Amino acid sequence: MIGPRFVADGRLLRWPPTLLLTLGLATAAGSAVADPVVPGFDVEVYSPVTDPQKLSFDAFGNLFVGRDNSGSGGDFGDPVKIHRIAAGGGPVAEYGNTTIVDPDCVVVDDTGVFGTPGAVLAGGIVSNLLGGHVVQVLPNENVVGLFGPTPAFHNPSDFVFDGAGRLLFTNHANPGTSVQGVYVSTGPGDTTGLLFSTSSNVVGIAVDASDRIYVGTDDGRIERRASDGSLLDPSFVQGVGLGAGFTIGAFEGETPALYVATTLGELLQVDLDTGNETLLGDGFVSVADLAFGVDEKLYASEFTNDRVLMLPEPRAALALPTAALLLAAAPRSRRRNSGPTRSGSPSARLRSPSAAGPGRALRGDAPGDSGARPPRASRAAPTR
Asked: How many whole angstroms separate alpha carbon 88 and alpha carbon 44?
């Protein structure tokens, strides 16, 4: 759902003193970690969890979370256990009877494509020499190998099952190790093979209801491809940054869309038919992944803040310009990267609609601040 647009005329808005006081008191009374502001949504901390990476729900609402030990002072390839967050937000527990080397990415095999319904696949790099691996964590928490270690792929960085039941995963390959791109397997007895290569390394993947494939690249693009891997649009979305988290899904009663958490802290909604982008909010920090749960709510893993956030279904539209002021006044983290980036703050871009690029709107809101952002003292998200 895309809310009403507000066309700015360049004038500065006068913020009601009562609203500024309310925002100031809320910030002072809150925790040291500022929460994102997404007008029309109540953003909640769903659960604290150590070093969260990729997210995957099972059919019962339990959330499985990949892990990168560099967030706790270790190395990104350290063997650790993944986490399971019970439906409803807890309890949180390590999952699996043994550690797994570099278990960044996870996906639940709900239908048992690889033999065991409900098993969780996890994967990552073992070493440049040995390559990557994929393991299964069975429902009894036994950890068994599925693929590798093998130099055929170097570092699985995200998983997804498509509508045909194929496992697709991105390979984030160091130079000289293996082919960067998307690999595929159809189940037991089928080794992984390269579905398509990419000109830039890839770190995220999603599929839509038509089995079109979306992959995030190191240079800040999201490509769109057909189910056979043929390129449909090399830059379906641009300027989202290296490692931007994204997913495809819908809140209750809405049309499925692509949701992207950029490395600048923005949350975008992208129409799958037109490619038009709607800026939903700001203030997210190092989001490794987004995922919709079985409850049709949106979840985000914030690596730096050791937590998973939840956005429930949208509230009734906020009155203009209240929603805009809330978004404009929120503390935001701006984390730039080597890929293309969007210029200016959301509100600054909306003051000059031509600078926002074609097709972009702000969900139900008006412009506001100057775009200055205080730095956030925190550890950086892992890079490979």
From this structure: 12
pLDDT in tens, 242-276: 999 999 999 999 999 999 999 999 999 999 999 99
How many angstroms from the chain centroid is the CA of residue 22? 30
* CB 364, CB 4: distance < 8 Å: yes
User: Can you tell me the distance from the alpha carbon of 144 to that of 199, in angstroms, rounded to the nearest whole number?
Assistant: 33
Q: Are 291 and 57 in contact (CB under 8 A)?
A: yes
- CB count within 10 Å of CB 348 equals 18
How many residues are recorded in the chain? 384
pLDDT per position as a tens digit, 285-305:
999 999 999 999 999 999 999
Return d(Cα 202, Cα 172) in angstroms, integer. 6
* 128 neighbors 154 (Cβ within 8 angstroms): yes
CA distances in angstroms from 13 to 8, 37, 40, 366, 367, listed in the order given? 10, 19, 20, 9, 8
pLDDT number for residue 327: 53
Pairing of strands 52-57, 131-137: unpaired
CATH topology of domain 17-362: Neuraminidase (2.120.10)
Residue 96's alpha-carbon distances to 93, 101, 125, 136, 141, in angstroms, are 10, 12, 18, 9, 4
The residues, ordered by sequence, that sit 6+ positions from 22 with a Cβ below 8 Å of its Cβ are none
**Cβ atoms < 10 Å from Cβ of 206:** 23
Token representation of residue 57? 């729900």
